[in-house]
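Below is our example:

___
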Amino acid sequence: MKTDDILTPAETKVVSGYVSGLIGKEIADKIGISYHTVVRHTQNMYEKANIGHSTNALVAWFLETNFELDLAEIKRRIGAFVLLCIVSFQMVVTDFDDGFLRQGNARRVEARARRGGRRGKRKDDGETYEIEM
């Protein structure tokens, strides 16, 4: 692996644990070292990789370095897909809510007119209709 030249064998074991989805305490138990040693190895890797203090960034760096992945392109594609889903969902919900609310308001006006025994007015698409009782 390309990171073998950069990381010590112990750091490689720790980062492999992060790649597997483990947290620091689980990594410590798995390789038989203390949690504080895992934290120290992690901090050393942040400095060696010149990345922020984020295990997600560390895992991304490890995968990009060893497997020559361009995660930036994958992130853009996933981001575009998620954005498309959000916009599509928002359009569906907005259309549904708009018609539902208009219909709900008309029902309330009709019910109020029935309860009061008087004429009520209902707005529907900008026009006003009278409701006879």
Q: What stands out?
A: The mean pLDDT is 80. The beta strands are 120-124, 127-131. The two ends are 82 Å apart (CA to CA). The helical segments are 9-19, 24-31, 35-49, 55-67, 71-116.
